[in-house]
From TrEMBL:
GO terms for molecular function: ATP binding; ATP hydrolysis activity; branched-chain amino acid transmembrane transporter activity. This is ABC transporter ATP-binding protein. The keyword Transport applies. It comes from Streptomyces fuscichromogenes. GO terms for biological process: L-amino acid transport. SUPFAM superfamilies: P-loop containing nucleoside triphosphate hydrolases. Belongs to the ABC transporter superfamily. It holds the Pfam family ABC_tran. The keyword Ligase does not apply.
Amino acid sequence: STDAPLLRVKDLAVRYGSAQALFDVSFDLSPNSALAVLGPNGAGKTTLARTLSGLVPSCGGSAEFAGQDLLKLTAPRVRRAGLLHLPEGRGVFPGLTVQENLRMALTADKQARNPGLERAFEIFPVLAERRRQPAGTLSGGEQQMLSLARALMVSPRLVIADEMSLGLSPKAVDIVFASLARARDNGVSVIMIEQFARRALDFADQGLILHRGRSSWSGPAQEAGEELLHRYLGGA
Ligand code: ATP
């Protein structure tokens, strides 16, 4: 496509003190598409997510998001620019109802008249059914769905989902993938950090495999066959 990329990352480098965690990582993400970021433990996946979302400083390279220089923005400004990072862990407030959790995503002045709540319930009917239920009583997959629905309340252009399926049952993992598919159907691009490589690649348009902070493979997701996964991920 001739679309300008929504996100263009070039030669990104990050260090924690004297230890370098990312070396020259580059990729483009088109609008309305999904990227699966894969790699073994310690490869730098979370570091990539945290750097793009303004939580960790870079020491080289560039990242342009919707025409803005992402690496110069603070975390709140990155969010305002339309990039939302869902960190590992669910981050819902278990004692608050589903509806209260969703409302918390909005500033006080917006809460009264924001159509986002009804829209969230349209996208995720399961949450509408459970709107008055404490979030802590939802299943693991439903809690992730709520976490994603809350992120979508502020109409992001890109969501970075870090290990959303971690520790979930197979059925809950299905819910997570279906929820991310819904987000994408609603025009949100997705960077998915995943342990389930095959599933993530089936979902995504593009793949990026990191190994010790370097990109060891990137390309169209459907080109990542079993042999390639075995070579780079040890058959994950
Ligand atoms: P996992 O799949 O285990 O979550 P990951 O691919 O997300 O791993 P990162 O968490 O990005 O990997 O870590 C990349 C490297 O950076 C690792 O060697 C890690 O020990 C190191 N690292 C991460 N965070 C910090 C930090 N705050 N200070 C120092 N080193 C860090």
